Amino acid sequence: MTVPFTSPLAEAVASDVLERFLRYVRVDTQSARDRTGSPSTPGQLHLSRMLVEELAAIGLDDAALDENGYVTATLPSTSGDRDPVVGLIAHVDTSPDAPGAGVEPIVHRGYEGGVVKLPREGTVLDPDSMPLLAGRAGHDIVSASGDTLLGADDKAGVAEIMAAVAHLAAHPDLPRPTLRVCFTPDEEVGEGATLFDIERFGALGAYTLDGSDLGELQDETFAAKEAIVTIEGVDVHPGFAKGKLVNAARLAARVIAALPSDTLTPETTEGREGYLHPYELEATPLKARLRVLLRDFDDDVLAEHEQLLRRTAEEVVAAEPRARLEIEVTDQYPNMRSYLEPYPEIVAAAQRAIEAEGIEVLHRPIRGGTDGSVLSARGLPTPNVFAGGHEFHSVREWVSVQDMAAAAAVVVRLAGEWARGDGDRDG
Ligand SMILES: [Zn+2]
Q: Looking at residue 115, what DSSP letter applies?
């Protein structure tokens, strides 16, 4: 079966993308919540140092790792210093939501369709429940071994940027603006953009390669808050507890049970619908701590989700006067749309680059956030481009080599779009 590359350019960069990807996913870069420093885990620095060395080897002499674990490097323009400076961003960390140490990637060459059985834990990739996998017959598919995530989120993006930059550096005849590369830590715990030095980065706009399906171009994300609901009970030896014990664990369970379950949940919503998602509960009779994600594309509706949670928790806990309730809500990231609208040329250039690769552009709002959500709000307009991975944050995560190669080719073409100076940009 012929292997369906999107273009000769994609085919030319494919083996470099794959080699890099297989090298990066073996490094355990899982990030951790409630970090006390940046990055949250030392494994991320192992990969970041590796990337600094590889960038220098490609010829990006200023490649460096800053004190917070951000890798930056510059590929200068080939066509003069009047060219704009454009950023390329991906994150090195992987999600804390599935095991991330000891990743052993497997390349399934020329996937024939059908169920893929992975060697560990009985994990299977089943095209019946993964329609996008069903559409990848003939592709080379990369998965983990069944007991860990793969880390295509976002090492696919890292490998694609690296391969694209290497290709551009090796082909100075290809037009390009000045490209600034940044690999960020701790995106998965919502901190990827926190310590990003936008001023020093110096780009007029940037692109994260952190999307999923071939052709995705995203300029809208959820707006996101996290609520931490803390309930304090009264703990007494259960043998002598009659009339005295107030069980915080039981109260927390009641709060979860009282939240909507047939609507406003991740498992019952799609498209532009938001949700309340209780995702972590630590509980003893004495103290319960429940973490809830609040998500919507509309700020007013997001505020309603927060009110619903507050009302629900207050009503449940009010039934037990000896229990104490505290609710703390923090902003996680904003919807990037309003910050990108003043700079239509940034999304337009990516659109042209994807089309030039012969791929249909999929404009889909992201049911999640990216580094670009916060970066856009902070003044670096940053839409998100597909990186090719699927089933993120799970042991079934997979990516097509052909799709990764297509993404790398899109980056090469994007450089060409910005270098052309065809007068349709304001910056
Ligand atoms: Zn990601």
A: P
Tokens (6 digits) for 100: 């991330």
User: No. of H helices and E strands in the chain?
Assistant: 11, 18
Sort residue 6 into left (φ over 0), alpha (ψ -120 to 50) or beta. alpha
Instruction: Report how far residue 16's alpha carbon sits from residue 32's, in angstroms, rounded to the nearest whole number.
Output: 30
Say if pTM beats, i.e. exceeds, 0.70.
Answer: yes
Confirm if 368 and 222 have CB atoms less than 8 A apart: yes
Rounded to the nearest angstrom, the distance between the alpha carbon of 316 and the centre of ligand 1 is 36
CB 365 within 8 A of CB 270: no
Q: How far apart are CA 144 and CA 18, in angstroms?
A: 14
Q: Compute, in angstroms, the gap from residue 259 CA to the centroid of ligand 1.
A: 28
Strand (E) positions, 68-186? 71-75, 85-91, 106-108, 116-117, 124-125, 141-143, 178-184
Distance 286 CA to ligand 1 centre (A): 36
**Would you name the residues annotated as active-site residues?**
93, 187
Nearest to 54 by CA among 45, 63, 44: 63
Query: What would the pLDDT profile of 348-395 be if each residue is shown by its tens digit?
Result: 999 999 999 999 999 989 898 888 999 999 999 999 999 999 999 999
How far is ligand 1, taken at its centre, from the CA of residue 411, in Å?
A: 17
Question: Which parts of 276-361 fold into alpha helices (H)?
Answer: 299-318, 337-340, 344-356
Whether pLDDT at 339 is above 90: yes
**Beta-strand pair 216-218/362-363:** parallel
Alpha helical stretches, state H, 59-144: 131-134
The closest alpha carbon to 6, from 353, 380, 343, 357, belongs to 357
Distance CA 259, CA 278 (A): 9
Alpha carbon 392 to its chain centroid, in Å, reads: 9
Sign of the torsion formed by the C-alpha atoms of 194, 195, 199 and 201? negative
